[in-house]
Amino acid sequence: MPTLNWIGKDKVISHHQNVPYRVLEHKYGFTAKEGEQTEPTHSGNKIIHGDNLEALKSLLPEYEGKIKCIYIDPPYNTGNESWVYNDNVNHPKIKKWLGEVVGKDGEDLTRHDKWLCMMYPRLQLLHKLLAVDGVIFISIDDNEQANLKLLCDEIFGKNNFIAESIVQSNSAKNNAKYISVTHEYMFIYAKNISQVKSNWNVKKSNVDEFVKRTNQLIKSSLTQDEIKKELRQLTKYPRFFDFDHYLYVDKKGPFRASDLTAPNSTKFFDIIHPDTKRPCKTGTRGWGRNEEQILELIKEDKILFGKDESVMPQLKNHLVDNINQTPKSVLFFDTQTTTKWIKANNFKFNFPKPIELIEYVLEIDNNKDSIILDSFAGSGTTAHAVLNLNKQDGGNRKFILVEMEDYANSVTSERVKLVTKGYGKGNKRVEGTDGAFDFYELGLPLFDENHNLNEQVDIEKIREYIWFSETRTQFKETKDKNYFLGKKDGSAYYFIYEKNNLTTLDFDALELVKTKGEQYVIYADNCLLPKEFMAKNNIIFKKIPRDITRF
């Protein structure tokens, strides 16, 4: 298999293992009903401000192997430094990181080398976070499309490649030097393709907008022929290609007409025209259904008759009954819709992703309880899409957003607040989705430069980390402050640790063990208990900091 090499690869290929684990400092919680609050909401929705490489590392104890769906829209490396969302690898934070990790070699890197150095460890951590049956979707354009394919083949495995979608927008670039490029790409990879369910089924893209346009025609005073003419024009737009046969409407909405006959059928009988009361025209083939079934279809208004009996009747296939399809590799979305929304609500952010694209991705995931991660969160479109879908189908999806820039609070989180509460005035008022989230900043490293526990870190954060590393479950502080962490699956966990003091697991320390378990996992700096005693009483000693799991 072809592999990709670049200057600095040897420095970053295992760098994700050396990224320091930083604690997440809770800044505030937010609920649509109560607004901001100091206490965590425990909603499961998170917005994290900080370097996404370090943030991804901080998510590992709780979320490794649990993220069902990842969508990222990384910098396209266009070289354009004038956008609010910096799309250039010369960002000061990236340059600083490259200098620390790659060293002097970083001075000779091309912008493509820099981009690959930036992406490689982040994709490695995303791979660790992805569930065994999870899928990652990555948006990109021509600047790094070829490099990204080889990068993902190496990290996720070429056999786990699902598809490369073309995402076409409706905005032409008339100032282009040669060709106006109106498309991007979206790579889709599985963690383990054998574990991913097949027969994907999604709502046809742009179907809601098409139905909305059709309903406007139904309410007009146009004749059926005039409506048909309007629909022919409408379906010439790329985003409505899927509906090019839906040229008729009735009270049930748009429909396409199909043949009522069937090859080799011997069912010949008269179908009476409802207006002329005469038998309709028939062909050389018999009807595809028996007479009783045809009469039932007529009763249900499922048969399309011509103006008189000279036209063969056809079957109505309503769009509402055929709204889903297998996802296609070419997608059309209106990029202006979300851009207009951003501007209308006074957010400063260029080129947000179409919310319909993210909703489409989440429909492919098709799990109402998924955790969705976006580590290049931008304006927060992914959270917006999650909240919209939860409102539509009663789902319980959770989002985790990571954003490096300072607008994580002023744009990303403010947009999510607005969506949950509702926005607009009068007849343009949009009801809120409801919901909650917690906002975090990256805090101190858990371990110092000597690989000891960082004594500046709050003890509760350390206890939380130990619990996560042992159980992979949410930590709930216990009333027992004497080193007890909790009990899970019969095991009782104790963390005997004090800042500035060495702790020892001995017979005196065992007096503090109040919660009984089938097994005891006890952390301390030293242990003086006899091995035979520990084996007899199912005690497992773990030395601080040596035996603390590193992610």
From TrEMBL:
Pfam families, per database record: N6_N4_Mtase (PF01555)
Keyword terms of this UniProt record: Methyltransferase, S-adenosyl-L-methionine, Transferase
InterPro entries assigned: DNA_methylase_N4/N6, DNA_methylase_N6_adenine_CS, N4/N6-MTase_EcoPI_Mod-like, SAM-dependent_MTases_sf
Reactions catalysed, as given in the entry: a 2'-deoxyadenosine in DNA + S-adenosyl-L-methionine = an N(6)-methyl-2'-deoxyadenosine in DNA + S-adenosyl-L-homocysteine + H(+)
EC id: 2.1.1.72
SUPFAM superfamilies: S-adenosyl-L-methionine-dependent methyltransferases
GO biological process terms, semicolon-separated: methylation
Domain DNA methylase N-4/N-6: from-to ranges: 67-407
Gene Ontology MF annotations: DNA binding; N-methyltransferase activity; site-specific DNA-methyltransferase (adenine-specific) activity
Family: Belongs to the N(4)/N(6)-methyltransferase family.
Record-given protein name: site-specific DNA-methyltransferase (adenine-specific)
